[in-house]
Write a structure and sequence with these properties.
Layout lengths: L3 E6 L3 H4 L12 E7 L3 H10 L4 E3 L2 H5 L6 E4 L6 H10 L3 E4 L7 H14 L3 E3 L7 H11 L6 E9 L4 H4 L11 H4 L3 H17 L2 E9 L10 E8 L4 E7 L8 E8 L2 E5 L6 E6 L4 E5 L8 H11 L9 H15 L4
Parallel strand pairs: 1-2, 1-4, 2-3, 4-5, 5-6, 7-10
Antiparallel strand pairs: 7-11, 8-9, 9-10, 11-12, 12-13, 13-14
Helix pairs in contact: 4-5, 5-11, 6-9, 9-11
Length: 329
């Protein structure tokens, strides 16, 4: 492959800034086609982003001979279907997270990737964000000594459309579409990065339930988990707290100190050491937050590097989340 010509299936909000513009900012990469079911919205997106072709049918985009890589940015209920179709058509695939709704769907995607020889990548972009690479550097350099344990807290209020009975909540809280609720949408990022940081998680147990009753999915999850290395972790996710109790904090405790950071709210890293010294880092995200990972994917497709996020790494967060939630169904 001399140039990666991308087609996007599902050009919704995530593609407006996080990912879409990045495809044209990378050498050897070009966005050549987009697809959305609504023709007017597809045409509008193509016009605003300088894309030559737009479709209302995913199969037509997949079979466009100019397209040799497909980015799937639809809700998870169609990830496996479109990914499998694209790989069977000889196209590399980059799919949004979570990789799919279930372990079985992820496994089928990996099987088709291996069968066709087409690469499969997943949008766990924290594996290449400078802020999160700095945290990995601090851990690898043992700035806080040997890691002992960690705690993840993510507590968010209900969204307006989840409170107003006249409105319909977003697709993320309907398990038949998303595979779960806000936990599956957001914790997937967290578990993927924690494995990238500290290695495989070998077991996880949890409680998941719906307390507020505002939508079908679970709105509270608590868990304990254990890494192969012996590092122990705990976590709590609640999506119905008051606005003033909103929390996004992860604390990693080592033998010589601790690191505190946020997964979603800010790019500040706080380091506190046993000698009383403190250090703070602020490493802003790039304008298009997925660009560093897309760069790694393009490099791999052009034979110049290796992407850190693949189907085989992407399935792991789905496995962990099913460990945590499946016994409560």
């Amino acid at each position: 492959m001399d140039q990666v010509n991308w087609g996007i299936i599902g050009c919704g909000n995530v593609t407006e800034k996080k990912s879409g513009p990045a495809f044209n900012k990378i050498e050897g990469s070009k966005l050549v086609a987009v697809m959305r079911r609504n023709a007017a919205q597809a045409e509008d997106y193509a016009r605003r982003h300088g894309v030559c072709k737009f479709y209302t049918d995913a199969t037509m985009l997949i079979n466009d001979p100019e397209v040799n890589a497909v980015y799937i940015a639809t809700p998870p209920d169609s990830h496996a279907t479109y990914a499998i179709e694209a790989m069977k058509a000889g196209k590399a695939v980059y799919v949004e997270k979570p990789m799919a709704r279930t372990i079985a769907e992820c496994e089928e995607m990996i099987h088709v990737s291996e069968e066709t020889g087409q690469p499969l990548f997943v949008a766990y972009y924290r594996r290449r964000l400078p802020c999160f690479l700095k945290i990995k550097e601090l851990i690898d350099d043992k700035v806080i000594g040997d890691v002992k344990c960690l705690h993840v807290q993510l507590h968010n209020p209900l969204r307006p459309e989840e409170i107003d009975p006249r409105e319909t909540p977003g697709w993320r809280v309907f398990p038949e579409i998303s595979g779960g609720g806000h936990f599956h949408d957001l914790a997937s990022h967290q578990f993927d990065y924690l494995e990238y940081l500290l290695g495989p998680i070998k077991e996880a147990k949890g409680i998941s339930l719906n307390q507020a009753g505002k939508y079908p999915a679970d709105d509270i999850v608590t868990t304990t988990f254990l890494f192969d290395s012996g590092v122990a972790g705990t976590g709590s996710w609640c999506f119905s707290v008051p606005e003033n109790l909103k929390t996004d904090s992860t604390v990693i405790i080592g033998s010589e100190g601790r690191i505190t950071f946020s997964f979603f709210e800010h790019q500040n890293i706080y380091v506190e050491l046993s000698d009383g010294s403190q250090q703070q880092y602020n490493i802003p995200h790039p304008e298009n937050i997925q660009q560093p990972l897309i760069q790694a994917i393009v490099d791999e497709l052009l034979g110049k590097g290796i992407s850190p996020s693949t189907g085989k790494t992407g399935i792991r967060s789905t496995i962990i989340m099913e460990w945590i939630t499946s016994k409560n169904k």
